[in-house]
Amino acid sequence: MGKIDNEIELKVLDMSWDYYKLLAQQRVTHFNLFIIIIGATSAVVATQIFVNLRGNMIALASAVAQLLLCFIFYKIDIRNKFLIKHNERIIKNYESRVEKGIPQIFITEEKNTKDIRMSDKDKIYLFRQLSISQLYNLFFSFFAIVSLFEGCLAIFLIFTE
C-alpha cells in the first residue's frame, strides 16, 4: 500500500470530500423542501376539496401539482445520488491506497452494507435494512399515490356536483 503524500493528491481528496459533504447536505435539503411543499399543497387540497365546484378544481390542480413535484424531486434525488456516488468512488480510490490501520470509511461501509443485504435476503422487503434512496423512493411513491387518489376524488366531485 502506498501513501498519499503528494500535495496535489491531498488537495484532490480534500476537494472530493468537501464536494461530497455539499452534495449530501443538498440531498437532505431538497428532501426537506419536498416535505414542506407537499405538506403545503396537501393542506390546500384538504381545505378546498368538498367545498364547492371551484374548491374541487383547486384541489384537482393541487393534486396534479403534487404529482408533478413527486416526479421532479425524484429526478433531482436521482441526480444527487449519482453525483454523491461519483465522489464516493474518488474517495474510495484514495482509501484503497492508504496504509493498513487507517480507517477506510467508504470501503468498509460498502462491504458492511453488502453483508447486511445478503443476510436480509430472506426477510420481507419492509423489514430489511433499506438504503436512503429506497426510503426516499418509498416516500415519493407514497405521495404520488396519495396525489393520484386526491386527483381522482376531485374529478369525481367535479362531475357529480
From TrEMBL:
InterPro entries: 8xMP. It comes from the Bacteria. Keywords: Membrane, Transmembrane, Transmembrane helix. The keyword Transmembrane applies. Pfam families: 8xMP. The chain crosses the membrane at residues 31-51, 57-76, 135-159. This is SMODS and SLOG-associating 2TM effector domain-containing protein. It comes from Petrocella atlantisensis.
